[in-house]
Amino acid sequence: MSDLSEVKIFTGENSKYIAENIAKSLGLELGKKTFLNFSDGEFATAYDETVRGDHVFIVQSTFPPSDNLMELLMMIDAAKRASAYKVVAVIPYFGFARQDRKDRPRVAIGAKLVANMLHAAGVDRIMTMDLHADQIQGFFDIPVDHLYGSSVLAPYIRSLNLDNLAIASPDIGGSKRANSWAKFFNSDLVICHKTRERPNEVAEMKAIGNVKNKNVVIVDDMIDTAGTICKAADMLKNMGAKTVRAVATHAVLSGQAYQRIEESALEEVIFTDSIPLKQQTHKIKTISVADMFAETIRNVYEHKSISDHFIL
């Protein structure tokens, strides 16, 4: 086992659940810090131990509210001002990633703005997982370790030993991801096509491919309102699918998502723990990525390859 005496793991207030497991996997204790809330909603954070000359890894997913992002920025700034040697932001879920381009006039490119803020705060490296758009890596002028949730999700699907397997994409945009899964499992590929009348609301959906008597697995990077996934599952079931499951890296799950999943034709939905679940249901399963991030942190510190985590 290598010497990690110069590695310190810290976490924001809402990512302790995964940071504790990452630290445990590395054989370390979480670093001590203080978080203060003021009556007006402002907050402050401070390290309660020295980080001078250390490799500081700050674990914080930036899911809503935006306080999580602000806290991460302040922790990076505090570590740099405390003379940390390197500061790495470990962001299992990178918020604002869906705003990666100008898809209509007069809109912000939120993902680029977040990248600029992280750079301005002084971060030396980013470690994240399943960005909504791969090109976001190019928004940074520092190293970005982009991991894939398929490293833990695909082995789980394989463990189910599903015969007559078909991989489905819930929309055209996810066809590249679904195609990679289909090649990995040597299975059929199904593409769902949807039209929207307004954001987060699917108007119509059709499927390309044969699903009759097949065990279908729908793959996506995140599930938000669950409208698309549930509509796709119901449609595939009506087309003769034997079972329908869904796997996604990030459990955004807003609005009526939990209710929709419970009432849908989905057998189960499998997520990583990049975002904590707001409630537990019998159809939702989570698989931890703490060991994957811990191994990546170790390899980055030891200047070793991390390519073993790119199985798809």
UniProtKB/TrEMBL annotation:
One of its GO terms (cellular component) is cytoplasm. SMART domains: Pribosyltran_N. Keywords: ATP-binding, Kinase, Magnesium, Metal-binding, Nucleotide biosynthesis, Nucleotide-binding, Transferase. InterPro entries: PRib_PP_synth_CS, Pribosyltran_N, PRTase-like, PRTase_dom, Rib-P_diPkinase. It catalyses: D-ribose 5-phosphate + ATP = 5-phospho-alpha-D-ribose 1-diphosphate + AMP + H(+). PANTHER family: RIBOSE-PHOSPHATE DIPHOSPHOKINASE FAMILY MEMBER, RIBOSE-PHOSPHATE PYROPHOSPHOKINASE 1, CHLOROPLASTIC. This is ribose-phosphate diphosphokinase.
